[in-house]
Amino acid sequence: MLTIAQEIYDAIVAHAQRDHPDEACGVVAGPEGTDRAERFVPMVNAAGSPTFYEFDSTELLALYKDMDARDEEPVVIYHSHTATEAYPSRTDIGLASEPNAHYVLVSTRERGNSERPVEFRSYRIIDGVVTEEDVTITPTPEHQRASTP
Amino acid sequence: MAIDVRIPTILRTYTDGAKSVEGSGGTLSALIDDLDGNHPGIKDRLVEDKSGSIDLRRFVNVYINDEDVRFMGGLEAELADGDQVVVLPAVAGGAG
Which segments in chain A show pLDDT lower than 70? Predict the structure, then answer.
């Protein structure tokens, strides 16, 4: 199960809407081994595409060095699908390389930039096997406010 | 000639869980061969055959002292004692 604070959930959805019709992507980092999704880090989609996302390689290194220095890991890796459902594509499954991460998919296909509800779903992707999991949204605690670097 | 190589989570099955290992080699290509000698199978996760020649896999990023090796000659990038090599799988995907 993925447990995520309302504020971070909202930030992921807002990012997906902002970048629609291109795919948006990013991570939520948390202390290693805790499964706590605490630090929202939106990333630039270097592919700038409605059907593909990729972190820029230099920014990827900076992100991992930063997480390393903080004893963090990527607890959530999120991206949006802008014309299809919030379910991992063959590309998503083939390229998933963080077995400990929750892969969050947001679909903006129905909503675009409007106020309609959004699809927000979470998965484990391990060795090519996709397992959907429940998402529990909690009120944001004071000490855990999302920060945008 | 010792080179510190940072191993990503997904490849730590080849290094008995170690986050970093030591390797040697004057080029990235030689380093990868050396790593594969001690951690059999890891080479195949880093490189692939592209129409007859061996190249880095498209969705594997390798950095030497924080610089992406794609800007340094790829597998032919030169290494020196004390260099740090970081391997990171691309974070990528999409509706496709």
Answer: 112-115, 141-149
Domain that holds residue A106: 2-141
List CB contacts (< 8 A) between B10 and chain A: 97-99
Query: Domain ranges in chain B?
Result: 3-89
Homologous superfamily of domain range B3-89:
Beta-grasp domain (3.10.20.30)
CB contact under 8 A, A79 and B94: yes
Contact B93 A49 (CB under 8 A): no
Summarize pLDDT for B42-76 with one digit per residue, the tens.
999 999 998 889 999 999 999 999 999 999 999 99
**What are the start-end ranges of the H helices in A1-149?**
6-19, 57-69, 90-95
* Residue pair A35/A17 in contact by the 8 Å Cβ criterion: no
Q: A8: domain CATH number?
A: 3.40.140.10
B90 closest CB neighbour out of A49, A54, A90? A54
- Asked if B28 and B74 count as a contact pair (C-beta separation under 8 A), the reply is yes
- Per-residue pLDDT averaged across B12-37, rounded? 97
Residue A53: inside a domain: yes
Instruction: Flag whether A123 is in a domain.
Output: yes
Percent of chain B with pLDDT over 70: 99
ipTM above 0.85, yes or no: yes
By the CB < 8 Å criterion, does A34 face chain B? Answer: no
Beta-carbon separation of A52 and B88 below 8 A: no
CB of A8 within 8 A of CB of A140?
Answer: yes
Q: Which residues of A touch B20 (CB under 8 A)?
A: none
